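Good morning C.,

I know you're traveling, so I'll keep this short. The sequence:
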Amino acid sequence: MDLEKHPAAPAPAPAPAPAHGPAPGPAALRASDADRDGIAQILGDALAEGRLTAEEHSERLDTLYAVKTVGELEQLVRDLPAPGGVHTPAASAYAGAGGVPVAETIVAVCSSSSRKGRWRPGAHTRAVSVMGDITIDLTQAVFEQQVTEINVTCVLGNVEVLVPENVTLRGYGSGVLGNFEVRGEGRGETDPQAPVVIVRGFSLLGNIEARPKLGARLVDLARKLRKHLDG
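The C-alpha cells, ready to paste straight into the viewer:
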C-alpha cells in the first residue's frame, strides 16, 4: 500500500462564459404586424387631416411594408402627431393597449364562404382557402378605420376580394404555380380621402384576385372620416 501523500490535482479552471453582444436597442428590433398597423393608422389619420397628400401617403404606405425594424417605422411618422393630437414617440403610438389586434377569420375547406352586404370589416381579416372558394365583398361595407388589411392563404382554392371603385387598393403577395393579382392599384379616380384596403397573400396552386367593382362607390368619404376623427 502506497502511504505517500500526493498533492491534490488542481481543479480545472471554469470555462469562460460565452460572450454575448449588447442587447439590441428598441429601434433595432424587428417590426411586428402590430407595429406596422399602428403606423398605418397614424398615416391614415394624417391623410384624412390633410397633413399628407395622397401621393405622400401612398409612398409612405409602400415603404411601411418594405422596412424591417422599429427604427425605420419611426422615421415614417417622425413629422406627424400621434393619435389624439399629442406628439409622442412613434413607439408609444403603436404599442396600444391589448397588444395584437383581433382578426376575423374566414375559412373554406372543400366548401365556400363569403362576407358581403352591409357589414363592418375589422382592421384585420384572415382568409384561408383549402380547395374552397371565398368571396370578400367590401362594396357595401361600413369602414370604421382608415386602413383595412386582408391576409389571404390559398391552397388549391379561389379567393376574390371586391372593393368600391373609389377605395385605394394595394397588394403585396406571390403565387407558386398559382396566381396573386391585385387590379386597380394607383387608379387616378381614387378618392384621396378614401379608406385603404391592403391585400397580402400567398397562393399555392390557387387563385387570389382583388379588384374594384365598377359602379360601386363609397360617398362622402372625407366628411365621414373627419366626423370619426373629431368624434
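Safe travels,
E.
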